[in-house]
Amino acid sequence: MDSTKKQLLHLISVGHLVKSSELIDIYAKRGFNAMSIRNTLSKLKKLNLIKTMKRGVYEITESGQEYIDVLNNKYIPEDHFNNIFYFVLLNIPEKNRKEKDSFKTVLTQYGFGAYLSNIYISPNDNRAEIKVVAHNMALTQYVSTISGTWDEPNLNDNLIQKIWQLDKVRTLYKTVNAFLINIKPEDLTDDSDLFNLYLDIGNFISNIFITDPFLPAELLPTDWQYHHTLQHLFSTYDKIAHTLRNSKFNKFIE
Fold it and tell me: Where are the domains of the chain?
């Protein structure tokens, strides 16, 4: 799921009963046309992440809220890393290539990295959630999970960066840092402009939660300092939210 879909899902989660017209108005100011927003809502509905309460009014489903919660919980790693890893083994036939590719995308979004093409690994235990996804995609018979210590003699920085694509994560954080340097929320006096900035920051947070596996410190490079970047994002996000509490956008503020 891309960050725009996740952000729409988040807005519906926070706003509870949300009209499509409200979302279309919000995203029109962000350069999206009405058709693209309706199509995205339709895709979220087909994935059973949102449901229609009445014509043009949406609410998040239990599955949708679980999806958000799983991604958010990535930010809360295991209490103590004890060299236990969790493996997902795939034996999905070629005839299910589309489902296989989609399932692999979900695995990476949930913090798993590809050790081999059909072996994914994570230091955080999301096996229960992965089993639910496999069930929903009718792939249960092709997916196995195991756990154990991993005595990989070559588990060094290079292999870790390859498995969890940390270069991609690092590039994202550098983009976020450049963004944070150039914004000045205190200079924005119009609530619409401030809410747009709030959504921009939320989009970066969504991107990070989708991309960053949030590995324990023991597995990260020694120069990894990007938790400070995320904290800066959260701090700015919360300050803007506080400012918008009494605005017309309050419905969509956490």
Answer: 3-71, 79-151, 164-252
**Alpha helical stretches, state H, 34-165:** 34-46, 62-73, 97-109, 127-136, 157-163
- What is the CA angle 132-10-243, rounded to 5? 150
CATH among 3.30.70.240, 2.30.40.10, 1.10.1040.10, 2.30.30.60 for 79-151: 3.30.70.240
Nearest CA to 208 out of 183, 230, 179, 235 is that of 230
What is the residue-level pLDDT of the chain in tens, covering all 254 positions? 677 888 899 999 999 899 999 999 999 989 999 999 999 999 999 888 999 999 999 999 998 998 888 877 766 665 678 889 999 999 999 999 999 999 999 999 999 999 999 999 999 888 888 998 899 889 999 999 999 988 777 788 899 999 999 999 999 999 999 999 999 888 888 999 999 999 999 999 989 988 999 999 889 988 888 989 999 999 999 999 999 998 999 999 98
Which residue in this structure is represented by tokens 């929320």? Answer: 185
Beta bridge partners of 144: 89
> Residue written as tokens 């747009």?
196
Could you tell me which CATH number the domain at 3-71 has? 1.10.10.10
Q: Quick check: 45 and 52 in contact, CB under 8 A? A: yes
Q: pTM for this structure?
A: 0.86
Structure tokens at 97: 């290539």
Phi-psi category of residue 147: left, alpha or beta, with phi > 0 → left and psi -120 to 50 → alpha: beta
